Amino acid sequence: MTSFVRNQWYVAAYGSEIGHELFGRTVCGEPILFWRTEAGEVTAMAEHCVHRRFPLSRSPSRLDGDRVVCGYHGFTYGPDGVCVSVPGQRRVPRTARLASYPVREQDAFVWVWIGERDRAEGTPIPRAPWLDSPEYTTVRGMEPLAARYGLLVDNLLDLSHETYLHGGYIGTPEVAETPITTEADETSGIVRVSRHMDDAACPPFYARSTGIEGRITRWQDIEYHAPCLYLLHSRIAPVGAPEPRADGTDPGAFHVEVVYAITPETEHSTHDFWAVARDFALDDQQVSTFLADNNRTVVLQDVVALDQLEQVVASEPPGTQELSINIDTGGLAARRILARLATEGAGSAEGAGAAGTAVTR
Amino acid sequence: MTSFVRNQWYVAAYGSEIGHELFGRTVCGEPILFWRTEAGEVTAMAEHCVHRRFPLSRSPSRLDGDRVVCGYHGFTYGPDGVCVSVPGQRRVPRTARLASYPVREQDAFVWVWIGERDRAEGTPIPRAPWLDSPEYTTVRGMEPLAARYGLLVDNLLDLSHETYLHGGYIGTPEVAETPITTEADETSGIVRVSRHMDDAACPPFYARSTGIEGRITRWQDIEYHAPCLYLLHSRIAPVGAPEPRADGTDPGAFHVEVVYAITPETEHSTHDFWAVARDFALDDQQVSTFLADNNRTVVLQDVVALDQLEQVVASEPPGTQELSINIDTGGLAARRILARLATEGAGSAEGAGAAGTAVTR
Amino acid sequence: MTSFVRNQWYVAAYGSEIGHELFGRTVCGEPILFWRTEAGEVTAMAEHCVHRRFPLSRSPSRLDGDRVVCGYHGFTYGPDGVCVSVPGQRRVPRTARLASYPVREQDAFVWVWIGERDRAEGTPIPRAPWLDSPEYTTVRGMEPLAARYGLLVDNLLDLSHETYLHGGYIGTPEVAETPITTEADETSGIVRVSRHMDDAACPPFYARSTGIEGRITRWQDIEYHAPCLYLLHSRIAPVGAPEPRADGTDPGAFHVEVVYAITPETEHSTHDFWAVARDFALDDQQVSTFLADNNRTVVLQDVVALDQLEQVVASEPPGTQELSINIDTGGLAARRILARLATEGAGSAEGAGAAGTAVTR
């Protein structure tokens, strides 16, 4: 048994990564072959040829129209994974087919389902609509992480680390000092962690992108949809600017939607997709370049730290004790939900708990 | 228990690799020290000093005439592995000797026996006489393979992969399309796979070396002597050329003897010896250079593919299913023979089956 | 259970390695953080933050005066390992403290105790007073060894290897040829191996540093304090020079104190501290440079050999046989003492054997 939560949608790639070319990526330990048909549909099937297990994503395997030809002995498959041709004989064995995976494109991501097939349709894919909305400009990337995905979940649900690990980029003293509000919805598998700073220093990340020169009101509202999607609704406004209006509009503030998709590759490695969408300076290429460079730097600071941490955790006996404090409330809630989902092998619809337990300390 | 077939002869090296110098090579997990005496005899003994296990093939270990001097504390051994001198005392302990291995030179190869010593003499070494015959010119090499030897056996017994993995070198569509005839002689441990193409494209490998410009008759007659020696008798002739004569001569065709020695190094790595002997253009250095370069390229295509495949196979659960078809008949027969030989820890003479089962599909 | 002897003092570093900076070093599998307070005291505490196990020796963890600030979330610790500040709340959990280790500075080394705390005080630290004596000049270094520490103990207790592995540096034929006297004091855990050569070639190491041109009297008196400290009292004099006087002075000879501290890092790696102290040419920088370069070369010859040997030993089945002879008497005695100390989890004071067993052969 692995620790993976199987009956959930995972981000496998950005849609732009998948073209009419063979593309292999491992999701939750399953090696999957992705490619886009000539009509533009994304397909997902097992990556290894049924014959002698050759990886179909590797040269000289190739696409021939909408067929995948294995580079070893020429077994040939259609977009549904069914084998249509084998070498040296006319008859194709009936069982010759690659497992295919449910796959969807949504919000600039390619989502894949590795669990029980009949549960895919009924399980909603969480949304990150900013990523392909014309009202936002997005910069983004993906960094491979040589660490178990739980370490990234811990990291993102406790932003007090910004002050220390990302000081001079996105961290200021107020982030670590300001208490948080945590809300864990066991039923839907969503954890919310909020930290509202009324009067805080403006870190370079926001100062240079928004042009604000003084102190700011800074809201960090995290919304983690276990296991894969992490949203950070970030609101920045000069101190004294008006609050959001009753109708939801908020013209006095700058909004940044920070999106992470956290996809386990193996038990000890993770695909770390990150995107930063903003509702200001939409056409300003300098701001885009600055935010892309700056956020990649921040992500790589996490990557270095978490890769080191993986080495520590992997070298210590399993039960080694940690000490948790208030800032960890969100992360601990996420761990509980992930453990439950992994144990149940179950989707979010099966949660039996009451809808939401507010934890404020 | 390992999967190695122990009571068989293995190729450890080309004879030309072993001079009056210490040379270490691991065969079926056994680290062996080879060197040639001043009289020119090849010796084979355990590679690690009996005293503190220092590897005798490594500097500053050295040969002193026909004695090996350990580079750590100076234990000194004769060509039979018997210790003749130790430091700090005159008396040499009677048990101080390196295990020695039966070793033979034949057909340009150095063969070694790692199994029960008293069975070596009675077990014939399979022949590849072309490699040092004046009627043939040979090009050859050895590539280390980071894959279990069974993957190379599979590879070589199913040449339909030439069409896909080696297209543009030795593969043409006819290889994959033409049915094979398979014959497995369980008693002698020999598998024969034949594919006779009457009218086939001539791949560059043969076109440039023979000078044939049109289509060819191409015969591939494989003779695999489990576990170590693989022979591919390759006959190429212009379409319409006469068949071989009743007396065995065949002046209308070109003959290439492709020889592989498949020697397990460890459970997951293999010494891949390859040689290409031809009976034409004997003194044409250009043809030699072309065939050497071209065949090495082909071997390295296999190495890359099999190294990848080893990663796949090693990462999958042991029972992961493969799907076999007609082209795999030879490979499956080889697997059965290898499994039997490994289980028996037995030589070829112990096979109890009837002499030969023809399998044609 | 590991093979480590825990209730003993180990050299963690040279005192000069530890400044007012975070310094991580693993001793017997325990990752330890060292730093010097502003007052100059060396501290030793567990290297991983109690919160989420981040390594406190790694950037961006940092010292703030006499406090360690974790680079991940800012947990802050005093020199005693007690946590004094955590992010997001005023109250510091009472259990938030890093394990601290007894630590001492003596003879230029920083010694650490990883065993039962209440036994540290009563266990003496063995001495190597030459290293910071004004009557000696010392050159020194530390080389990481990718081999279990027992292989280095074997190596140093049998100097006959000098003739083979270090020929041309410190070895001459007489070292391997001359018999040894061995004395193992099971109670104190000390092994003594002596080899007195009355008329020996003078190896370059001593010829160039002492200026002696002819043959020498060469004494090698080893004193190994299991597990960590190895002393080689080396006496060199021209043949015919007077013996040491009754009062212990020895003006006719040159004395070199070769000191090794052998500190296991993990089960398969070792910190190899080496120092060479001399009582002659005290201010001669050329002699210092020569001895430093030459001894480092010798140590690296050992490192290369032992790293290879570790590969051999790790690849062989645990019970693989070795053959021991007279020169191994010291090494075998050391192994017995180390095995006893590891089994008892006990310090040297607990030995029950008679005080000293002379073994001469």
From TrEMBL, chains A, B, C:
Q: List, alphabetically, the Pfam families matched.
A: Rieske, VanA_C
Q: Which Gene3D superfamilies match?
A: Naphthalene 1,2-dioxygenase Alpha Subunit, Chain A, domain 1, Rieske [2Fe-2S] iron-sulphur domain
Protein name stated in the entry = Vanillate O-demethylase monooxygenase subunit
Identify the species of origin.
Actinacidiphila yanglinensis
Q: Name one GO molecular function term.
A: monooxygenase activity
* Superkingdom field: Bacteria
Mind listing the UniProt keywords for this protein, alphabetically? 2Fe-2S, Iron, Iron-sulfur, Metal-binding, Methyltransferase, Monooxygenase, Oxidoreductase, Transferase
KW Heme (keyword) present: no
Q: Where is the Rieske domain?
A: 9-112
Q: Which GO terms describe its biological process?
A: methylation
